[in-house]
Amino acid sequence: MMALYALVLLPLVGAAAAWLAGRASPRAPWPVAVATLVLLAALLAYITWAVPAGGGPWLAHASAPWIPALGITLRCDMDGLGLVLLWLTVVLSFPCVLLASRDITDTPGTFHALLLATIAGVDGVFIATDLFLFFFFWELMLVPLYVLITVWGHEDRTRAAFKFFLFTQGSGLLMLLSILGLAFVHQQQTGILTFDYFALATTHLSPVLAMGLMLGFFVAFAVKLPVVPLHVWLPDTHTQAPTAGSVLLAGVLLKTGGYGLIRFVVLLFPDAAIRFAPVALALGALGILYGAWLSLVQDDIKRLIAYSSVSHLGFVLLGVFSASPLGVAGAVVQMVAHGLSTGALFVIAGALQDRLHTRDLRRMGGLWPALPHLSATGLVFAIASLGLPGLGNFVGEFLVLLATWRISPPIAILGAAGLVLSALYALTMVGRAFLGPPPGDGWPALPDFGARHMAVLGAAMALLLALGLYPQPVLDLSLPAPLLHSALPHAALTGGPRP
Amino acid sequence: MLALLPPLIVLCPLAAAAILLLSAGRMPPPAARLLAAGAVGLAAALTLWLAVRFLSAPPPAHRLDVVLWHWLRVGGFDARIAFTLDPLSLVMMLVVTGVGFLIHLYACGYMRGDPDVARFFACMTLFVAAMLVLVLSSDLLCLYVGWEGVGLCSYLLIGFWYAEAANGVAARKAFIVTRIGDAALLCGLLLLATRTGGLEIAGVLRSIQPGGPVAEAAAALLLGGALAKSAQAPFQVWLPDAMAGPTPVSALIHAATMVTAGVYLIARLHPLFLAAPAVMTAIAVLGLVTLLLAAGSALAQTDIKRILAFSTISQLGYMFLALGTGAWGAAIFHLVTHAVFKALLFMAAGAVILRVHHQQDIFRMGGLGRAMPGVFAAFAAGAAALAGLPLVTAGFYSKEAILQQAWRAGPVLWAGALLGAFLTALYISRCVFIVFLGPVRTAPTGRTEASMAIPLAGLSVLALTGGLIEMPDAIAPVHLLFRLLAPVLGPPTTEGAEGGAGVLLLAGALAPLAGIAVAWGLWRPRAGAPAPADDGLARAARAGWGFDAAYGLLLVRPFLALGWLNRRDLFDRVPDLLAAATRWGARLLGRMQDGQVRRYAGWIAAGTVAALCLAVRP
Amino acid sequence: MTTSMPFLLSALVAVWATFMVVTRAVAIHALLYLVVALLALACVFDVLGAPFAAILEVIVYAGAIMVLFVFVVMMLNLGRPDRLRENSWIAPRGWIGPGLLAALLLAALADALVVAAPDGGPIAVIDTRQVGLALYGPYVLMVELASFLLLAGLVSAFRIGRHIRGEDAP
Amino acid sequence: MTAAPAQALLLASMLFALGLLGVLVRRNLLFMLMSIEIMLNAAALAFVAAGMRWHAADGQVMFLMILALAAAEAAVGLAILLRLHAAGRPTLDADTGNRLKG
Q1: Which CATH number goes with the domain that contains C75?
Q2: Does residue D69 fall inside a structural domain?
Q3: Could you tell me if B425 and B516 lie in one domain?
Q4: For the segment A231-259, what is each residue's pLDDT rounded down to a tens digit?
Q5: Domain match, B365 and B508 both
Q6: Of A310, A306, A318, A195, whose CA–CA distance to A246 is shortest?
Q7: How far apart are CA A397 and CA B319, in angstroms?
Q8: Residue B573 lies in a domain
């Protein structure tokens, strides 16, 4: 199905169009970007609709030669996991463009072009099944975002962008090494040089080699997710990025880490992953607690949200390495819910910064009477973020904890303790920003959220509510398709961890 | 038809909450009041009708299951959004909607003039909906939705007057402390789900093996949740601060309904707790300890709402004591009567507070009985029920049921409970004497509205007569409630202690009378102005026996202090270290190229020598 | 191992004179010692059977290049203050590092000789004719290179030294 | 008349080391140039000794090459030296050589 290529090409064409439009008029790129996103959503809807019923776990497929001499093809496959995350990407692109990027006055054409290019890269990451192609898209989503942060970021943007680039690029190189290593081992065994995911999955690896190659992938995705000792780029980057960049980064780009862990770490190296699981689970629990703990003591609202992301995505790590369909389903729901809630929180933080010209919580307080709509949405998404049952985040966290409890109750207890801390930081943020007395002699008249913001954020809230009360469609889709393209029935994974 | 009613009853307040929320403050206050009170009133009426239908033609096995939809079905785990209607949930529904409706009615008057009334009623109706979900759920995960939902509404309502920073802090404290218990509860659910494959209450209870470590652990974890929600030791610290909310909130959430959720949970899952005897003992002991500690604290308070708050904790201690001794029916009975008389007390106190300009210190009130006789009568009825004035009050009968059960479980528990009854009468009589008798210290103004007076009157009647549905055998063999609840909680254990029943009854009747008498001796109206005791014991009691300070010193401060120390993130230093090392190395290497010809020559020579050494002797 | 007397003698002279060059404070003294060292080296060449090299050493090195140095020294107009400054510059403290390094180099080289000492053999004189045949046979390209080098040296020396007087002042 | 090539090479090594010592120790550019001449000569000696060992003319050819090199080097080096002297650096201090720029 060539429509899969269109998922990547359409945003790229849109990017070029936005750039050209920006040369004509500074007001032109925004409608171009919106139109591109609408087309993209329509395209994805078409792809979803065109999925043959009962056609197996892989829902769509596309393949074309690229560099035949090196066995590199343009192979793309989409399964339910990819579809869910593609939808998340498209859905979250809308708040980025509708709410955040319209106010960009500094070369808006280039800004929108880079934003769309990032989206194209993310789309590609979620469908590529040629490892070389995957790496290509991995870099494609990285570089435009780097430029976005460097050019349109806040006061300390250069340093933050540099840190972001160093961390992701450095870990990406480790992944490239692992990809090449896997391809060469496969070539030694079969005489065929290929980067095909399904072919490489059949490679026989010694335990040590498998662990080494797996760690290469793991580090790359762990930086992206992020997993705690490797998270240090994230608070700086989120804080300094322009609002649209923060939303995209938190909402979508971090998910590529979770996706990669499921698709490439657990499924390509199942044995090594299971041996590595105790470490990964411990890191996940550490991330949940450490992120929440540091989130609690931040004064910068964007930093606070960034650390809360670290905490939330610790659940994803737990779920992925619990090696059960329950955990993976929970991790996927958690990724989607986190994308929606944290994306919305970054929109709100960005709006606060636009209005107050500060992100410092010490200079906020008592904003509710001045900005009732903004404050109410902030409260609502903070509550979603603390994992209130009935909203999407709870479903993800509960499923992950349940899967973890089956393996290791102590880790699950630590994760549950994270829920207490998440309530602590979320309510502290609400209390410090919106409640209490206003500083000094009250706030001047501030523009509240208008209908556009309320509609978009309301839609996000509705999605979270739907995800929290009826997550079954996502749960059914979220199990990653099994490795072998043909033979294995779907039950192979749903039956539990592979031996 | 019957199966449609429970979801419909939940939907009434939920729809009202949704409309109020979506109106985003644009709805005029009268409409908001009408909508909220109307929705809860409709729910109450439907519940009443449902009760009549249910009692007149009970469904098979006295339970009615309503499955709404599959919530989570993945990897062998299945959770449903499903309701079960049985006598226990019916009683709870009656309390929630009935008392809830009266409190909404009262709030229409109490909150008049508040510009943000729509937000208030949105949270209140949402709370009623969540509480109904809690008591109706047939699946523990679904119950957890209601459990956290009521916690959230409690948070929102305690901090309703957000402009006061202290209110926000109190709200956060309430949510966090209960959240700690919620985390324990969640762990209990995880354990049960892992062991039994699902969280449907009936299924969970079927698969319990008595005495096993799983049952003990699960019961202990669930108890953690119940203790925090019901403000029992060691989690009781949040409830007195929660009085920062408007008085109707205190009446509805922090007296009548939400705080009893822990009691309901344990009663609902009583076979699990029966399988864990050690946990049962812990429940009884914790209940007794809480009961005495809180009664002592109530005796030393000066703020009328804090007196009532400590009293609530103390009364919940009674319920836990009953639960710990296996007297499920008695616990529920006391839950019901307590909901009535404590809501009444709070609302009467609220009426007083409104009339004396938001003055809450009882030592600045006095002589109010003459100025507001109606409120005085209502408060007195509530106080009498709380004190357990023999024969004529609901509180007497429910407390009596607990005392009887405590005697059977052990004389120590009984003696403690009796001491508690004495203290209860003592502190509430102190409150009544100081506030309503003696000289006037703050002159009241205005009138108590009809919308506030009607609920007071209704609840007064209930507080006095509500106990007649269930009486000890020694007085009259009336067992309406216990027989109603028997399909869920098992047949009531009324046998045993026959010989001493009369003596026990007498002791239970004399203790409150003694308390009132002592209170009259200490705080009867005198010439001089009464003053609060100020010795060390009183100060300790007033501060809740130092739990707050201890938690602050041992847990909160160190945690926050460590956090502030690590605010810049330890791990963030690692890349900086790497960068510093690189810079240092670069400076070292850079120093070699300083433009000094001779040093260049030296380096070249050194390199040559090194290469030579390597080449000659590899 | 036997060593011929002339080699030993000239070798000793060469080392002694070189040492004096390195340690003198007065430029012209050092220069004269350098001439002595070069002459001793010429003797060594002769002993090693390279008379052509010995003669060129005397004519070109000791004759031409050293005269160049002498001219420069004369143009520098050195005097007593220069000698005192020179003395202060070669204070003993500065000798330690370079001395160690030089000793290390010497040790390494000597070690290399011990490891792979070329065996001695009868010395056969390689006369000018042989050198000339090699030079204009296989090494003709190197002659061209040397001529380029010398031309380049000539041009650059001319270019650098042209404006020493007068207009160069600013 | 015998002289082992090893001895000639040892002599070359000693002269080279002394020359190196001179380059490193002396601050005066003139002396450094002289020391460089010594080192060049030591290298030349090594070539000649090697040529003697193999009875080949190549060693002396290389000596000629070095001679040309030394001549060119001396010419350019001395020219620079004179120019420095004339340009206001009469001390010929090599340690201030890094101030050439600007």
Answers
A1: 1.20.120.1200
A2: yes
A3: yes
A4: 999 999 999 999 888 999 998 999 999 99
A5: yes
A6: A306
A7: 33
A8: yes
In sequence order, the β-bridge partners of residue B139 are B200
| pLDDT tens per residue across span B301-312 | 999 999 999 999
DSSP assigned state of A471: -
Contact A414, A314 (CB under 8 A): no
Considering CB atoms only, which of B606, B608, B616 is closest to C115?
A: B616
Does A touch D (3+ CB pairs < 8 Å)? no
Judge whether D41 lies within some domain.
Answer: yes
Contacts of A6 (CB under 8 A, 6+ apart): A43
Report how far residue A212's alpha carbon sits from residue A101's, in angstroms, rounded to the nearest whole number.
Answer: 42
**Does C contact A via 3+ CB–CB distances below 8 Å?**
no
Domain CATH for D30: 1.10.287.3510
Tell me if D31 is assigned to some domain.
Answer: yes
User: Mean pLDDT lowest for which of A79-88, A107-116, B533-542?
Assistant: B533-542
What's the predicted TM-score (pTM) here?
A: 0.83
| Domains in chain D, number | 1
What does pLDDT average to over chain A? 88
CB-CB contact of D56 with C98 (8 Å): no
pLDDT at A450: 85
**Chain B touched by D97 (CB under 8 Å):** yes
- C24-33 pLDDT tens trace: 888 899 999 9
Domain total of chain B: 2
Residue C31: which domain range? 5-123
Whether the Cβ atoms of residue B340 and residue B466 lie closer than 8 Å to each other: yes
**Domain containing D84: what range?**
7-89
Q: In angstroms, rounded to a whole number, what is the distance separating the alpha carbons of residues A303 and A233? A: 11
Asked if the structure places residue D100 within a domain, the reply is no
Q: What integer best gives the mean pLDDT of chain B?
A: 89
Q: Do both B496 and B398 map to the same domain?
A: yes
Q: Which domain holds residue B606?
A: 568-616
User: How confident is the model over B587-605, as a mean pLDDT?
Assistant: 82
One DSSP character per residue, B334-373 reads HHHHHHHHHHHHHHHHHHHHHHTTS--BGGG---HHHH-H
Contact A412 B569 (CB under 8 A): no
Query: How is residue B57 written in tokens?
Result: 């033609």
